[in-house]
C-alpha cells in the first residue's frame, strides 16, 4: 500500500486490479526432461524465478490433453494434462508451489471450440444420441459450404465431414470445431468442467475468444469483406450476454477468482456491456485495437505505417471510455503477438531504452498489466529463414493459401513479413542463459531458438547492473507501492508527438508519465520544478524535467 495515499477514501480495492500477471506459454518456457518441449516440471523449476521477478499471478496457456493442431488451443480432454506437459500430479505440485509463494494461478479456458478428437465431437460426428447438436452441423452439397464465413486462420470456416455427411463450423483450424452454445447440454457440460477446475483451487480464467460463442441461427452470409468474412454475425453474437451471464452464475460467481475475456473486434462501448456492475460477471478484457495499428492496406500479412498519435488515440479512448466499474487488461505481447521491441521499439541500437519505455507505458496506464515470458528481458523477433522453420498453424496456413493462389511464388517473398508478424516470435524458447539452446532444453527444441540468446538471456540480465529485467522488477515494485498507478484517473497531456505524456490522479496524489517514443532527442514541452522522480530509464535525473528527453527516454514523477 502506498504510504502517500493510505488515507484516500473510497477505493474499492481488488486483488486482481493490483496484480501484475505473468503469462507462460508452457511449450516454450522450460523443458525438464530433454524432449525439447517445455513442461509443467520445467515451470516448477522456475517458480523461484517468478517470485524474484515479483509477479502476483501466472496465466498458464493450455496444458490440457490435445493433439496440438494449435498448440493446446485444440482440447481433446479438458480434465487431463497433455502427456508432453506432465501429469495431473505435476499440475497439483505446480499449483502448490505457486501458492506457497503467494502467486495465484489463472488457467486458459477454451470453450468456443474443442479438438475434433474430443469425445463430444467423435460422438457428434457419428450422430450419437444426445450429441447430434453439440457442434454446428449443416447438411448440403459437399462442394458448397453453407455460407461465406471465413476462418481466422484463413480459408473457409466450414469443413465437410464424410462420416456425418454434413458441414461443420470452425472459426479457427479445421481441427477446432466450434461448440454449439445454443444447445443447453453443451452449456451444462462446460459449466461442470469449469466448476471442476475451480474446485481444484485455481484463481481464475483467461477466456479464449470468448465473445465468439454465440452464432445466429440460419448462418447468414457475411456482408462485410475482411478479416474474417462473417464476423458481424459471430462476433458479439445474438445470445452472447445470456451465455456469459449464465456461465458466471453457474461457476465463478461462487469463487474469489479473476476472469479476463479475450475479445476480438471489441470497441469500448461493447466492452462496457460485458464488464463492471451491469456486465456479465467478467472482470476485464483484452482488446486488440493497438495490435492492428501496424496492419498494411492488405491486412495482417502486410506491414503498415503507425504513429505515436495512433497509440495515444487508442489508449486514451480506452482509458477514458471504460466505465468507472469496468477494467482493462493491458498487454504488449502474448503468445499470438510478435515481440514488442522489434515492432514498436528499436531492437538494435536502443533495445534497452525502447523496451523500458514501452514497459513504462504499460505500467503507467490504468488496468492490470500482463507481462509475457521473455518480455521482461527484452526478447526480440527471430529470423525464420524457411517455411520449414515456421511452426504456427496461423502462419503456415495463410502462406500455403498465398502459394496455392499464386499470390506469392516462394516463401522468401513473404519472409520479411513473417519475420515481422508471425506468432512464432513469441514462441521461440525462453532465453535462460548463454548455454546450449539458451538453457531451455538439453534436447532438440521443438522450435528454433533465437540466435541472440548468447547476448539476451535471464542470467546475464539479472547479473547486470542495468538491464531490462531490473527495470521490470522496479516497475512491478512501484505498482505495488503506488495505488495511484493502479486506480488513478488518466488524463492525456497535450504535448507534441513523438512525446506521449499523461497524468494519473487519485485524490490529491498526481503522477506524471512522460515518454519519448523516438530515437531522436525531443523537447518534452513540460516543465516540472519540484517533482519526485519515481522511475526512469536513464540515470542522472533528479527532480526537474529538463527540456530535452533522450532517445526513448521514459520517466514517472510524483508531482
Ligand atoms: O486467439 C484468437 C485470435 O484472435 C488469434 O487467432 C488471432 O486472430 C491471431 O493470433 C492473429 O493475431 C486465441 C488464442 O490466443 C490463439 O492462440 C488461438 O490460436 C485461438 O484463439 C484459437 O483458440
Ligand atoms: Ca519436456
UniProtKB/TrEMBL annotation:
Keywords: Glycosidase, Hydrolase. Transmembrane segments: none annotated. SMART domains: Aamy (SM00642). It holds the Pfam family Alpha-amylase. The keyword Ubl conjugation does not apply. InterPro entries: GH (IPR017853), GH13_cat_dom (IPR006047), Glyco_hydro_b (IPR013780), O16G_dom_2 (IPR045857). GO terms for molecular function: alpha-amylase activity. Residues 23-427 form the Glycosyl hydrolase family 13 catalytic domain. GO terms for biological process: oligosaccharide catabolic process. NCBIfam families: PRK10933.1 (NF008183). Belongs to the glycosyl hydrolase 13 family. This is Glycosidase. It comes from Halapricum desulfuricans. The gene is amyA7.
